[in-house]
Structures are given as C-alpha cells and as structure tokens.
Amino acid sequence: MATQSSADKETYSSISSKKKQKSDYETKLKRFLLNQNCQCDFDKLEAYFLQEQTDPSNEHLFSLHYAIILGKLGRHELALETFLQNGFYTDAEGYCETIYSNGNIQLARDLYRQLIEHYLKTSKDGNLNENSLKTILRIVNNSSERLDPVQILEILPGELKLNNLTDFIEHSLQTFSTIKRSSQLERNLLFLKLLRTQSNRISSENHSFTIDSESRCARKECKQPFKATQAVVRFPNNDIVHLHCRAKYENECAKANKTRY
After folding, report:
1. pLDDT tens-digit readout, 168-186
2. What pLDDT shows up at residue 174?
3. Helix, strand, or coil here: 225?
4. Which of 59, 105, 130, 229 has its CA at a distance of 20 to 30 angstroms from the CA of residue 220?
C-alpha cells in the first residue's frame, strides 16, 4: 500500500509539473507574440499553428496564439471569433479594448458588437441564460463609451430591462455630448484659423511700394533710375529692379548666398 501511494504521488507530481511547464510555455509565447517589437513572418506562423491544431493535445493551446496571429495579420473579426469559440473570453474582451486603445474606434465598436452577438447566440430556446445576461450587462455598462448606442440597443434582447441599462444610456449620452461639444469647439477654432490665414493672405497680396525720382535699380551693375514707361519687379526683400535686370539680379543674389554659406 505504501509503495502504491508513493507511486501515485510521483505520477501526480509529474503530471502537475508538465501542466505547469505547458502553462509557462503558453504564457511566454503569448507575451512574445503580443510584443509590439515582435518581428515574425506571421503568414508562416499562421500555417504552422493551423497544422499543429490537428493534434488534439495542442488544439486549445495553439488556438489562443492562432487568434493573436490573425489579429497581427489584420483579420480582426476572425481573430475575435477564434478567441470566443475556444473559450478565451477574457482575451476576447482584451482584444476589443486593445483595438480601441490603438485609436481604431469604428473597428472597436464593430468588434464589441460581434462580442455581444456571440453571447446572444448562446441562448437556448430563444431565452438568454443568466450568465450570458450578466456578461452582456457588464460589457455594456463598463464599456459604454466604446459602443455605438444605436447599434447596441437594436440587438439587445427584450429580457434586459431598461433600468438595468441606466448606466449605459447615461454614459453614452455624456460621451456623445462631450464629443459634440469638442467637435463644435474644434470647428470654431478651425474657422478662426481660416479667417486669420485669409487676412494674412490679403495683407501679403496688398503690399504697396512707392517709386520716386530717387529710386534706383537694386542690381549692382545697373543702379539706374526708373522711368515711367519701364516695367519693374519687386522681390520679397523689398528690392526693386528693372524687368530686364531681373535674371542678372537673381544671379547676384545666388552668388552672394553661396559665398555666405
């Protein structure tokens, strides 16, 4: 009996050790794939994980990382569906949050809707079970600013009472009111900037100058006065030259700048 008990303990210890090693491997691989600096050939990794999933002992393990790779390849809807189908519900919600945090608001809203619709599909005989109902309420109330209230209210089942959605509705109204005020403020600031730009343009275009009997051509080799019948050119530095002196004056300026630097 003592020998059998000792053998059972060794077997149990060996199994526990292997489970721990597998869990550590899963965590390390997940952390590696989620690293933003990870530079891999994700197309090849996708093919590899698809092949490994044919082994029943690896199916659950590699489904998690397969979903991460699908996300890296930009196949976001399929990535979320893979998380959900294999029971990685926490990772699925985290994936939606990551997309939102990265600034892809519309995609995040679509994924959150897909997430909620998944829990709606778990209903039996047309009725939601209590756990699915609680999960949907938690997601809706905790992620109100990430959801499109119109789309979400369209798909929510009748079992959800309005008083259970109070937080969601209030937060959605506050969020969209804030967005509206910010958009109006931004619009007003842009309009003010446009007015200032137009004012500066008009001021630049309406710049005037006077030519009198003392005015001379700015070209060093000319320095002749201007006649009433002669065309002139004014440069940004306010120098005025005869039209026929323009090219030579530009060459003088180019040589002066080249010597300076």
Report:
1. 777 777 877 888 888 999 9
2. 80
3. strand
4. 229
Q: With a cut of 70, which residues of the chain have pLDDT below it?
A: 1-19, 22-26, 29, 32-39, 48-62, 122-128, 159, 260-261
241 DSSP β-pair partners: 233
Q: 140 with 113: CB under 8 angstroms?
A: no
Pinpoint the alpha helices (H) of the chain.
2-34, 42-52, 59-72, 76-85, 89-101, 105-121, 130-142, 149-155, 166-205, 246-260
CA 156 to chain centre: 27
The pLDDT value recorded for residue 142 is 80
DSSP assignment of 150-194, as one string?
Answer: HHHHHHS-TTS-GGGGHHHHHHHHHHHHHHHHHHHHHHHHHHHHH
Domain locations in the chain? Answer: 18-184, 213-261
Rounded to whole angstroms, the Cα distance separating 58 from 241 reads: 83
> pLDDT value at position 192?
93
> Taking the alpha carbons of 114, 147, 109, 134 in that order, is the dihedral positive or negative?
negative
